[in-house]
Amino acid sequence: MVKKALSTVALFFFAVAFSCAQKPFDVLDWKGEASLNAYLIGKMTAQYEARRNVLGAAKGSKDATVRYQAKVKAGIDAVIKGFPSESALNPKISGTIIQPGYRIEKVSYESFRDHHVTANLYLPTGKGPFPTVLMFCGHEDSGKATPSYQQAAILFAKNGFVVFVIDPISQSERHQLLDEAGKPQTKGGTTEHTLLNQSANLLGSSVAVYELFDNMRGLDYLCTRKEVDSSRIGCIGNSGGGMQVIYFAAMDARVKVLAPCSYLASRARTLAMTGPADGCAQVPGEGEAQLEMSDYLIAAAPKPLLVLAGEYDFIDYQGTLESYGDLKQVYLDLGVPDHLSMFSYADGHGLSKPKREAAVTWFRRHFYKDSTAVKEGDLEVLPAAKLFVSPNGLLQSVYPNERSLADYHLSVYHALALKRSAFSEEDRAVKSSKIKQLLALSTDELKLESFVLDSLLQNGLRFYKMILRSPGEIPLPFLLLKPTGQIKQVLIWAAEAGKESLARDPASLKQYLDQGFALVLPDLRGIGETKDKAGLNDPKYQNKEYRNAMFALHIGKPLAGQRVYDLLCLVQFIQSNPCFVNEAVSSGGAAIEEESFVAKKITIRSNGLLNVPAMHAAFLEPAIVQLDLYQGTPSYLSRLENPLQKDGYSELIPGVLAYYDLPDLIRWLSPIPVNFFK
Q1: Long-range pairs of 241-245 with CB within 8 A, sequence gap ≥ 24
Q2: Which of 23, 86, 474, 552 could form a disulfide with 559 if both were Cys (CB 3.0 to 4.6 A apart)?
């Protein structure tokens, strides 16, 4: 009897929980939260499958491999762009530390005008010139002073190498977003990298490019030093510094020997498994260009290359092995298999002692023709403050006119004003073509199917639950409400909080229905039913849909553009006299009468992150006669002026500011009325 009672109680609570879990305004009969990411993975997989087929076809042929390298280099040139203009280096040495067997100079140099880089230069005793190693740092806040980097630099110096350890942007002495007291405004360099990167992307560049440029300018400086043999240059880097090595390998022909540590993996596997990393390691369009991580190193082949990896690293080790397999094929086909090696160790992330020893041994083998295994003894590391170039660890205290990347972005924006002005003078057809290109919108005719899945009577209103499908795209769920009388206008009402937030406000909906509006309430992709899980988006990136927004940029289909596509599909649905098939009724749904929407006036109302897609849809689709915008970004300039704003990647269109800003787009909509509401 007790068991029966407990069973009854359990069933009751299960029924209550199940009923509470049902959302009456949901349309999809599956968990839509995975839809957008699954779509993005599918697109990326196709891109990298095509890449793998091309690389596979080159196997066994030196000529075909060289052609593959040329293809890769063209792809790299297409995505690694937006370099600043060089200035005089104006190097300064602020101090020297004498150590047994080597000395350390505290160096700063000008990467571009009024923008400086801090570094430590390790110089061995003895008569040079010496072979030289550039060392690129990972994401440790201490940058060049990180103990393992000091130990690596000392080990190299004690074995006859000049070593230049460069602070990356946003680390150690190089924070870019400071408050009035000179303190960083973000909790870490990775957050600052990511926020600055979204501004750079709007201007057609990236933080990865800025780091690459700093490193290339660092090599320019080294080539001025008498202690440096500029014919024997190598580079090594760990973690984010390993990523810098990968980019550097492809872009600077002066480097002769390479050793990325704890970063080389498979871009495809990493994105599918764990999502995108920090903004400094994400370059828009890499997937579209079919560039894997290994391709940057393939571009540098047959230069001697040592891959350093931890078998228990959070960097996907299987992806490391996959990329190393690509490299083995290329080096074998180029006839120099001995120029490639991999050292893996049963540890995790970082430039550990075994990896340091392997690296120095590799560099001595190729620069000194000495293959003797190097062993590391006890090495004294110094406190970070002792290695600072500036007195207090703040570069701005040495260079009061220091130009941060945020300042630089504003200067680039204003320098592009003439180009934007010229684009404004183009006719509508030219503008539409360029905008479609920037948004990655297909010029093919839309092919749509619409289905009524069910209807719901709630608070006296009849909601038709509908799906709009187009080949190869995410099904688009929406609610349709019809007035009791003649349809006079149509309102597409896209809410950032999702269609359910609108459906639960029957009073507002009824006001429009009483005026003869038919209402279309969609969940654009990534919104409402298809919203990504919050737990899959690291809050340090300050973007609630960072994973999918960055993924979209990677495959060359910005999320804003994908949402424009959804809106254009809805407009075509409205215009195309939809006839809803009987299967909707037989499956428990309810059919609505066929009725022409042709020539109805269409208004779009949106808010927040959906305003940018709404503006673009209104420009591209003449059937839209009015735009009502609530609480959104007024301009991309406002994001450059305040890079701490959240959710910038959701609205980002790479390179857009070379052509227009949002106020330009609004101006071009005239005479369509555009209403702004707070």
Answers
A1: 241/135, 241/136, 241/137, 241/138, 241/168, 242/136, 242/138, 242/308, 243/208, 243/280, 243/281, 244/136, 244/168, 244/208, 244/211, 244/212, 244/215, 245/136
A2: 552
